[in-house]
């Protein structure tokens, strides 16, 4: 790996030596440096943006290079390329704001003029001053309606963080790369965590060093983009700049664990002399595990008649001296009985590319994508020696280790062409995700003393291939502007489960994670065809209406039509009203339809084997579980944007999303509401080798309502700026009282079919309130950023078998300082969660006998994280 990065570094440096660098500073009429100004080489799409000091640097092998400087709010200016240039831009009447690409057909629409709410996260800038190194973590700390927290002891979900937008599920937000649909992971979250029973998109598989910015469309957009866009759309725009940038970050938690190292290289250069470019990114990230448990509750009981010391996890502080004496007498240490509970260890290696090659004056070939190779180690529940799991191998008990190997590949390839006034775009997007499981430091009881202690447990894959044909144009001559778009999409998906080695699944399987057996194997596929049309008409400069419609047909459940209407009206040049209404849908994923396995569940405090069964299985038919169908939604939003002054902007948006036939992952069926076994069910389940069963079904209707507030204020300074921002989201989700399609055998057992735990995960496991207040000062070569984040209260119920608990709201503080050592090199140091704030400790009944001190809610369980970052750019 070190040789790979050395090769990339040397190769890019040699390439740069053949190019000429142009650099300088951009200021306004008052000599104030301007940040975020677009600097593009004329006749190409190659360029960069100015930093917070107004500085820029761009390279070219062209002769007589002309640089074009532009930004909303300023007149475009051209300048012959040179060194140490000083560019003075004149203000124009346009609103100073970012141009938006997602959710609109107007090539100059800004985020203050869109008919629906859009956030823009400038990743290439923000990642220089933030502790976070992944897109998931950056969004969680910068977009209040976005939530993501790492999960513990949750099988594969430890290795792919589930995320939500506006309190909805990970599978109810659509992710795009450069405007093209991104594939989901093959992992189905099935361990009673955030997003239980859903399949999300792995944002951490995209290197943050490759990202220029992220657009978050906070409104239902299924009529424009298709399935999954119920909560909104996240559009990730990759870098296209030239030059070389190298960054490295080191960090560690206040507990001395979670050690993190990140190294990234981004290099861009021109291709030919017609505006082509290639931008390459390599990134390596290594994150150590953390442990946040309560080992002081461990009690060791002397069982001298058996000649063993048995570990029990019941709180008994008064027995501590006796415990230590017993441990010493046995020649053991407390570490022999420790639980590991916290973040999994993750190692991530990523390569990404973004390129465009003009083929003529009107045509351009483009491609983007890359690969991600990830390995991880997480921990299952500890097996105590009193439980008798092959004591000859592990006389003191053991804690299994779940090992993951994840391969994620993607490639977008397409051709853009100008057909008269129309833009033609034909593309193919292919994505593949493979998740392999290994389980070590464990045994299979059925194999006795001959049991291996590690197993290949099998895995799953997901393949998605999408073909898009799009036509669009924007005509300034019709009224005040007419945007038209229409097109078609064909999508193919394939999902597989493959078996592990025999020892991982025979008998009751490997402890903690029984491997996939041949009976679990799946190889299923489906296809869909979609047709859409979108019309955006500016009746006047002040009044805009956007109407969109989409028809889709799926090979596995049929057809659906959705529509959306959105409008924007300028009350004044400074105040804009906006609103939208639309219907949407989400097709059941192949994973939800066909995932099946035998896993170890925690039921009433006992570890037992439970099964997840396909909806088309014989047991599902016997119990009357209905086949899955699509979720449908209706959403409405109403908002206001205000440009109070050139440097003070406000947006306020209220919304409501109603979802019918929402897919749930049922509770563990086999017992009644009191935990007693139901004989009729047990007779059906016992031949299958399980004590409980779970299914996916369209069981509930939900209603989500909330409000988003964004306020930005900028104070220009002689050598920089002082920026204030306040971001706030309030969000509530309610599940309707009546369940849908409950099979007759479960009538009267609805609290098991969809119990308190499952309901809590949907209604109250994300903070209802989240606010982010940031003060960002840049002055000459120095910069300081102070961010306070309020994470609202969370209620958890029935985790894993205990009672309801309210986790109070918490306030965390991030503080960073940066210094530009010279024009190319910068240093940033700081702390995330400076004051080491953690969620409320769990009540004993929810903590697995005191082991899980903290739940993975709100800001997570990492605590304070200190980091330093060096960044070099030419």
TrEMBL record:
Signal peptide positions on this chain: 1-20
Does S-adenosyl-L-methionine appear among the keywords?
no
Stretches assigned to the TonB-dependent receptor plug domain: 111-233
This protein's GO cellular component annotations are: cell outer membrane
Under the heading Pfam families, the entry gives: CarbopepD_reg_2, Plug, TonB_dep_Rec_b-barrel
* Keywords for this protein: Cell outer membrane, Membrane, Receptor, Signal, TonB box, Transmembrane, Transmembrane beta strand, Transport
Say which family it is in: Belongs to the TonB-dependent receptor family.
What name does the UniProt record give this protein? Ferric enterobactin receptor
Instruction: Look up and give the organism this protein is from.
Output: Polaribacter atrinae
The major lineage groups are: Bacteria, Pseudomonadati, Bacteroidota, Flavobacteriia, Flavobacteriales
